[in-house]
Design brief:
Distance between the termini: 39 Å
Structural class: alpha/beta
CATH superfamily of the largest domain: Aldolase class I
Strand content: 5-15%
Largest sheet: 6 strands, parallel
CATH topology of the largest domain: TIM Barrel
Number of strands: 15
Number of domains: 2
Number of helices: 20
CATH architecture of the largest domain: Alpha-Beta Barrel
Length: 491
């Protein structure tokens, strides 16, 4: 199983956040397959391996099947890996799965002639059935739901596979086959990892592909199963930081309370510091206080915009007043917050984007902000609208710019250059103001001592904050979003 190198996520590029995480989708697949198969994992992204190194690894282990993960900005890299594999192992079967190929299976197979199979949607059951079938003398591919493939040169798409109803039945991710020591949070060497306690989302955001990928449903794991995994991770890998990557962690409020109670019952409070991604309308002060007492320290919110009309245009389903209230609650409770926002949604103008920046600085005052360019991903109504209205001229064949850092839309009110300038200004005005830096320093020292102890917070400061400030001094704030060549960081 392969996580290809190439595109670097916006959370890793943000040098103070510097979030590198285990590819959970692949790890879940590994957990299912290792019962009956020999499974190895190659996270080429975390080690930033070049093509020759990847070919050497393929040749060394000579697998029968190579399964590659492909989100949209990674698709072209995944296709390159398929070609690399076939160059050294002509008989190997190549499988590509992920959000991108789920929505564009026909184009994906056309652009990657070396790929044998596309897995569409939730992969555990599909790839298990595929491998079991390939092991038979006369494999009958027509019986396998959720795959696309070629038959006599003609691309075939079998019917979709049903979602797994009971998530507790899925084995935990096979973390042991990944380089767990290479994944970090916030630029430090503190041991941490990511988890999911639920899958999917039942909301209607126009820019998000999750809803369609999971068939507009939200499914949850039980609180006991979730916390059992937290305890296992803490004991097995000595991980003290857990990031829940759910799209809707708190959709079921009773379950949030149950998870928090189970954290106390299993003696994890004080041993594990955790955070989660949330929607603002699913939480209130009491829920956040309960989470805080159970060891929660970080909240991630997809805020998207400070303009109510824009939020309504993209069917976000939240109000700016609710956003402000939740960030105020978090600050009162001593919870760190990450706000994610984007420029370039339908209706955006240069002026209202500037207003959003000021709103974030003055009203929300989050711990960190991730600014991005609104990007129309396949499988979303936003993508369909962008094609229909000519914001993107045609279906791309090179998806490597769909990073949310490289503007791809040409709006009448907001050009690509406008969006680049807005992102640059947003980072400079927010993260380089003396008030922000002083406030962050005081807040982080106080918070760090409480959560990790005095020695750990000083270690964190030297490992993460000082190198980040030195980098900013040399190359400027916006450099964290640009390629690694220092010459390209210069204005």
């Amino acid at each position: 199983m392969v996580n290809p190198a190439g595109q670097v996520s916006k959370y890793k590029r943000h040098r103070l956040i510097n979030y590198t995480a285990i590819p959970l989708g692949l790890a879940y697949i590994g957990g299912v397959l290792e019962k009956d198969h020999q499974v190895r994992a190659l996270d080429a992204a975390v080690f930033e391996l070049n093509q020759n190194q990847v070919k050497g690894i393929f040749k060394k282990y000579s697998p029968d099947v190579i399964a590659i993960q492909a989100f949209t900005p990674l698709f072209n890299y995944a296709a390159q890996y398929a070609k690399l594999a076939k160059d050294v192992l002509p008989d190997v079967k190549i499988v590509i799965g992920g959000h991108h190929v789920t929505f564009l299976p026909e184009q994906s197979l056309q652009l990657s002639p070396e790929t044998d199979f596309i897995v569409r949607g939730e992969g555990e059951r599909i790839i298990t059935n595929l491998l079991n079938t390939l092991e038979t003398n006369e494999p009958n591919l027509k019986e396998i739901r959720g795959i696309s493939y070629r038959e006599n040169g003609i691309i075939k798409h079998n019917e979709d596979e049903k979602l797994i109803e009971n998530l507790d039945e899925i084995p935990w991710p096979a973390r042991h086959i990944f380089p767990t020591k290479s994944y970090h949070f916030f630029g430090s060497n503190m041991k941490g990892t990511s988890m999911v306690s639920s899958r999917g989302c039942n909301q209607l955001c126009q820019f998000c592909s999750i809803t369609k990928f999971y068939q507009h449903r939200w499914r949850k794991r039980s609180a006991e199963d979730v916390v059992n995994e937290v305890k296992y991770i803490n004991e097995k890998y000595k991980a003290t930081i857990i990031g829940f990557m759910d799209d809707c962690f708190a959709l079921d409020k009773r379950r949030v309370y149950d998870i928090c109670n189970e954290m106390h019952a299993q003696g994890l409070v004080g041993k594990v510091c955790w955070g989660s991604a949330l929607r603002v309308e699913t939480v209130n002060y009491e829920i956040l206080r309960k989470m805080r007492k159970a060891g929660c320290a970080m909240l991630f919110f997809g805020v998207e915009s400070g303009d109510q009309a824009i939020l309504d245009n993209v069917h976000k389903g939240i109000t700016t007043q609710k956003v402000e209230a939740v960030f105020k609650h978090a600050k009162k409770l001593g919870l760190n917050t990450i706000a994610s926002l984007a420029f370039g949604f339908p209706g955006d103008t240069f002026k209202n984007c500037l207003n959003t920046i000021e709103w974030v600085k003055k009203k929300l005052r989050p711990s960190f902000v991730v600014w991005a360019a609104a990007t129309p991903y396949p499988g979303t109504p936003f993508y369909d609208e962008a094609l229909e209205k000519g914001w993107i001229k045609e279906i791309p064949t090179d998806w490597s710019e769909y990073t949310m850092m490289d503007p791809v839309l040409e709006l009448s009110e907001l050009t690509k250059e406008d969006m680049k300038n807005l992102i640059k200004y947003a980072y400079k005005s927010m993260h380089f103001s003396p008030r922000y830096l002083l406030g962050r320093l005081i807040y982080e020292v106080r918070q760090g001592i409480e959560l990790y102890g005095t020695m750990q917070i000083f270690r964190q400061f030297f490992e993460a904050v000082l190198p980040w400030l030195n980098h900013i001094r040399k190359y400027g704030v916006y450099s964290q979003l640009l390629p690694k060549d220092p010459e390209l960081w210069k204005d």
